[in-house]
Specification:
It is a single chain. The chain has three helices and five strands. With about 110 residues, the protein is an alpha+beta fold. The chain folds into two domains: about 30 residues, no CATH class; about 80 residues, Multidrug-efflux Transporter Regulator, Chain: A, Domain 2. The chain has a three-stranded antiparallel sheet. A two-stranded antiparallel sheet has the order 1-2. The longest helix is centred in the C-terminal third of the chain and has 18 residues.
């Protein structure tokens, strides 16, 4: 089954798009629930933050008085040394927006 979408360049002409492509385009607009840390040397594609800065926000350390302001989850199998750390996207964005409003209040 294919959806028909009106093509704005040709009046009356229609093109077909598979449903999976339509769903993928809608999913691209919705923010993710979790994001991974960027690879070392790269920036986060969602926020532009470096991996070290994101680690500072999600892990207890002296820079945040041992109370991370951003929520994260570690996925690790029992007995494993390594796992995957996922950052809660809404928590990260809320923290960044709170910093923005704080800086606007100080001006």
């Amino acid at each position: 089954m294919k959806e028909l979408l009106a093509d704005s360049s040709n009046a009356g002409a229609q093109t077909s798009v598979p449903p999976t492509a339509a769903v993928a385009s809608v999913a691209a607009l919705a923010p993710p629930e979790f994001i991974r840390l960027p690879k070392p040397g790269h920036l986060c594609p969602h926020t532009g933050l470096s991996r070290s800065k994101m680690n500072e926000l999600i892990l207890p350390c002296p820079a945040n008085d041992w109370k991370p302001p951003v929520k994260s989850v570690s996925l690790r199998k029992r007995g494993s040394l390594r796992g995957t750390r996922l950052v809660v996207y809404d928590s990260l964005i809320s923290y960044l927006k709170s910093k923005l409003t704080q800086s606007n209040d100080n001006e």
